[in-house]
Design brief:
Layout lengths: L1 H6 L5 H9 L3 H6 L15 H10 L2 H16 L16 E8 L12 E7 L5 E8 L8 H8 L9 E4 L6 H10 L3 E6 L4 H8 L10 E7 L2 E11 L2 H5 L7 E16 L6 E16 L8 H11 L1 H13 L16
Parallel strand pairs: 1-4, 4-5
Antiparallel strand pairs: 1-2, 2-3, 5-9, 6-7, 7-8, 8-9
């Protein structure tokens, strides 16, 4: 009944319980609700719905749902070595705070999720607790996922917080997969070594443009083999490094200086990102590396955004147990 209410557009617990209470007899009968002495179907009481959500094992439910989606999304065994550069199945791993809930210690819990690049289906999820505990949970999450979804030959994409040597060794060694990682200042030695490379002598090898939502975006990528000195010595299984630059032009409305009316203004921004990967040039070209990085952020647009905006998870006033996550 709760799932049916959500499919009908209910996003808050109050809306769900109200929809269940007002559901017609044919809907109650189809959902298997109990019948009273007169034979009429009786909807569950709102307090019962709240208790179910509070006591529900959200982690186990997410695990069963992830296994089901993984069986549907499994691309089959990946043959390698590959004959040439091409697309490999990708898995994006990222964490999200459940801001509407609080654990026994009063801290906001975090969910670490693994989602497919193509369908953006969450096939594994793990409750990690505070933000500082997210990084050590990546290996257990992927290890559990590999029990029912073979990760060999896949490309695992993560944000800069997970760009650590242990993760690179685990992904390539135990899982026999590949990684594409963003490099930022949280790893200063690796960041400095890649940033110091002679990027000025490397031509732009792939470029894409996109216009929409009031902005024009141009993305370029430069790729080179990871040098033995400075990069491969610092990071295990590194084969290529890349520099991605994003140039964004937006038209915005700004209030006029006299305070009357608005005027249109053009705002231009440029952002650069460094990337390291275990894929060599025979396995992935510049367009593939740019695509893996772009597809990774679908987990923000299609999962985190839906949970925060569509389902208003962060606005939930339920504070007990697994209520907000359920």
């Amino acid at each position: 009944m709760s799932a049916a209410a959500v499919l009908c557009g209910c996003t808050s617990l109050a809306d769900v319980t109200a929809w269940i209470t007002a559901a017609p007899q044919q809907v109650l009968a189809a959902a298997g609700c109990r019948r009273g002495p007169a034979g009429a179907c009786i909807p569950p009481h709102p307090d019962t719905v709240v208790r179910v959500f509070t006591l529900l094992g959200a982690g186990q439910l997410a695990g069963h749902a992830g296994a089901f989606l993984a069986r549907r999304a499994a691309p089959g065994p990946v043959t390698f070595p590959v004959a040439g550069p091409g697309w490999l199945p990708g898995i994006a791993v990222d964490g999200k705070a459940v801001r509407g809930a609080a654990g026994p210690d009063g801290l906001v819990p975090y969910l670490l999720a693994a989602a497919t690049h193509d369908a953006c289906a969450v096939i594994a999820e793990r409750l990690t607790g505070p933000k500082t505990n997210e990084v050590p949970e990546l290996a257990p999450l992927l290890r559990e996922l590999s029990e029912y979804y073979c990760l060999a030959g896949h490309v695992i994409t993560v944000d800069a917080g997970h760009t650590v040597r242990a993760h690179a060794s685990f992904i390539c060694g135990e899982l026999m997969a590949h990684y594409v990682m963003t490099v930022k200042l949280n790893t200063p030695g690796l960041y400095g070594a890649i940033d110091a490379l002679d990027w000025a002598s490397v031509p732009v090898q792939h470029e894409t443009t996109q216009t929409g939502h009031g902005r024009h975006e141009r993305r370029t990528i430069q790729v080179m083999d990871a040098p033995d000195c400075g990069v491969r010595a610092r990071f295990p299984h590194a084969r290529q490094v890349a520099l991605i630059e994003r140039y964004i032009t937006r038209t915005v409305r700004k209030r006029k200086e006299n305070g009357r009316g608005y005027r249109k203004a053009t705002v231009r921004t440029a952002v650069a990102a460094l990337v390291i990967t275990s894929l060599d040039a025979r396995e992935a070209g510049p367009e593939h590396l740019a695509g893996y990085v772009r597809r990774h952020w679908r987990i923000e647009n299609k999962i985190h955004y839906v949970r925060d905006v569509t389902y208003r998870e962060d606005d939930s006033r339920v504070r007990t147990g697994t209520g907000p996550a359920s």
